C-alpha cells in the first residue's frame, strides 16, 4: 500500500490520479472477489432450481422468497 | 487507501444493504407473495389435496410446495430464509462494488474518491439490476413453470452478462473518448454505447410470458415491491460506501497535508 511521496509543490491538493491503486495490486482481489460473488449469487439464485445439484429442495425452499423478490427466475 | 480499505467498506455497506433490502422485502413484498401463493393453492386445490402441488409436471425436483406443509414453513421462508438471501446477496454485491471503487479510484477523469465510488455504484445498480429488471421483471410464485426454469435462468443471466459487459465497455470507451476529445463527449459516447448494447440485446433476447390469467393488480404490486427491494439494496450500498470512502479520503488527505507542512518547515 505504499504511495509515492508527493512533491511539496502541491501542498493541500492531491490530484485524484495520484491515488490510483496499481492494477497489479488490485487484480488478485478482483479475481477472487468476482469468483466468490458469482458463487454466492448462483447459490442464492439457482441451486436446486435451474441447477439441480445438490439433490433435494431444501436450499431452494429456504431462499425461495429471496429468489422471487430479488428478481431471479423462480417458480 | 488500499484494496483492503475498500473491501472492508464495501462489506460493511453490503451488510447494511442486505438488512435494508430485507426490511423492504418483508414489509412491502411478502404481502404480495402471500396473495400469490393463496391464488396458486386455490387454483391447484381441486387437482390435489391443496398442498404438495407440483406444477403438473413429471420431474419431481422441478416442483415444490408453497403451503404450510412444505419442507420449509412459510414463516421461515418469509423471515430467516428471506434474510439469508438478502444478506448474502447484499454482502457480495457490496464487497465487489467496494473492490470496483478501488479500481475506479483516480481512474475516472478528475473525479474525487467519493464521486468515482458513487458513479461505480450507480453503474452497478443500473447494469446488474435495473436494466435486467426492465427486460425480465421479477415474477411472483404461481407464475413461471418448473419446466422452463432452465431456459428462463439462462436468458436472464445471459442478459445480465450482456448488460454488465456493455457497461464495462462503455466505461472503457468513455475514458478513451475523454482522453481523445474531452470529458463530456467521452461520457456521452459511453452512455450511447451502453444504450445501444442493451437495446439491441433487449430486442434480440426472447420474450418470456408465462403470466396466464394471473391478476394484474397483484402482479404490479409484486413487481414494484421487488424493484423497491433492489433499489433499497443498491441505494444503501452506494450511500454507505460513498460515506465511508469519503471519510477515509479526508483523513488520508489531512495526514498527507500535515506531512507536507512538516516537510516544508
TrEMBL record, chain A:
<protein>
    <recommendedName>
        <fullName>CbtB-domain containing protein</fullName>
    </recommendedName>
</protein>
<keyword id="KW-0472">Membrane</keyword>
<feature type="transmembrane region" description="Helical">
    <location>
        <begin position="26"/>
        <end position="44"/>
    </location>
</feature>
<keyword id="KW-1133">Transmembrane helix</keyword>
<dbReference type="Pfam" id="PF09489">
    <property type="entry name" value="CbtB"/>
</dbReference>
<keyword id="KW-0812">Transmembrane</keyword>
<dbReference type="InterPro" id="IPR012667">
    <property type="entry name" value="CbtB_put"/>
</dbReference>
Automatic annotation (TrEMBL), chain B:
<protein>
    <submittedName>
        <fullName>Putative cobalt transporter CbtA</fullName>
    </submittedName>
</protein>
<keyword id="KW-0472">Membrane</keyword>
<feature type="transmembrane region" description="Helical">
    <location>
        <begin position="154"/>
        <end position="174"/>
    </location>
</feature>
<dbReference type="InterPro" id="IPR012666">
    <property type="entry name" value="CbtA_put"/>
</dbReference>
<feature type="transmembrane region" description="Helical">
    <location>
        <begin position="186"/>
        <end position="205"/>
    </location>
</feature>
<feature type="transmembrane region" description="Helical">
    <location>
        <begin position="225"/>
        <end position="245"/>
    </location>
</feature>
<feature type="transmembrane region" description="Helical">
    <location>
        <begin position="117"/>
        <end position="134"/>
    </location>
</feature>
<keyword id="KW-1133">Transmembrane helix</keyword>
<dbReference type="Pfam" id="PF09490">
    <property type="entry name" value="CbtA"/>
</dbReference>
<feature type="region of interest" description="Disordered">
    <location>
        <begin position="44"/>
        <end position="70"/>
    </location>
</feature>
<keyword id="KW-0812">Transmembrane</keyword>
<feature type="compositionally biased region" description="Basic and acidic residues">
    <location>
        <begin position="49"/>
        <end position="70"/>
    </location>
</feature>
<feature type="transmembrane region" description="Helical">
    <location>
        <begin position="82"/>
        <end position="105"/>
    </location>
</feature>
Amino acid at each position: 500500500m505504499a504511495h509515492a511521496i508527493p512533491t511539496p509543490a502541491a501542498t493541500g491538493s492531491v490530484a485524484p490520479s495520484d491515488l490510483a491503486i496499481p492494477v497489479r495490486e488490485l487484480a488478485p482481489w478482483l479475481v477472487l472477489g468476482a469468483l466468490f460473488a458469482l458463487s454466492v449469487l448462483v447459490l442464492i439464485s439457482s441451486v436446486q432450481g435451474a441447477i439441480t445439484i445438490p439433490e433435494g429442495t431444501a436450499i431452494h425452499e429456504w431462499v425461495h422468497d429471496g429468489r422471487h423478490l430479488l428478481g431471479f427466475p423462480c417458480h | 487507501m488500499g484494496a483492503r480499505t475498500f473491501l472492508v467498506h464495501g462489506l460493511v455497506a453490503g451488510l447494511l444493504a442486505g438488512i435494508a433490502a430485507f426490511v423492504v422485502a418483508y414489509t412491502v413484498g411478502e404481502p404480495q407473495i402471500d396473495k400469490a401463493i393463496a391464488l396458486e393453492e386455490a387454483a391447484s386445490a381441486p387437482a390435489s389435496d391443496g398442498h404438495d402441488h407440483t406444477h403438473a409436471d413429471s420431474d419431481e425436483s422441478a416442483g415444490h410446495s408453497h403451503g404450510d406443509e412444505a419442507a420449509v414453513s412459510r414463516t421461515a421462508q418469509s423471515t430467516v430464509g428471506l434474510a439469508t438471501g438478502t444478506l448474502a446477496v447484499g454482502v457480495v454485491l457490496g464487497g465487489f462494488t467496494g473492490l470496483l471503487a478501488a479500481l475506479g479510484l483516480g481512474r475516472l477523469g478528475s473525479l474525487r474518491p467519493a464521486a468515482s465510488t458513487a458513479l461505480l455504484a450507480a453503474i452497478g445498480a443500473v447494469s446488474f439490476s435495473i436494466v435486467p429488471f426492465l427486460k425480465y421483471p421479477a415474477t411472483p410464485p404461481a407464475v413461471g413453470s418448473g419446466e422452463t426454469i432452465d431456459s428462463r435462468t439462462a436468458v436472464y443471466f445471459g442478459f445480465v452478462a450482456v448488460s454488465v459487459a456493455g457497461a464495462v465497455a462503455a466505461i472503457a470507451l468513455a475514458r478513451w473518448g475523454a482522453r481523445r476529445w474531452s470529458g463530456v463527449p467521452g461520457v456521452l459516447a459511453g452512455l450511447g454505447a451502453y444504450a445501444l448494447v442493451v437495446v439491441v440485446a433487449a430486442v434480440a433476447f426472447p420474450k418470456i410470458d408465462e403470466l396466464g390469467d394471473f391478476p394484474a393488480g397483484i402482479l404490479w404490486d409484486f413487481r414494484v415491491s421487488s424493484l423497491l427491494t433492489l433499489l433499497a439494496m443498491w441505494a444503501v450500498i452506494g450511500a454507505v460506501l460513498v460515506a465511508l470512502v469519503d471519510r477515509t479520503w479526508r483523513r488520508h488527505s489531512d495526514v498527507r497535508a500535515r506531512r507536507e507542512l512538516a516537510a516544508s518547515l
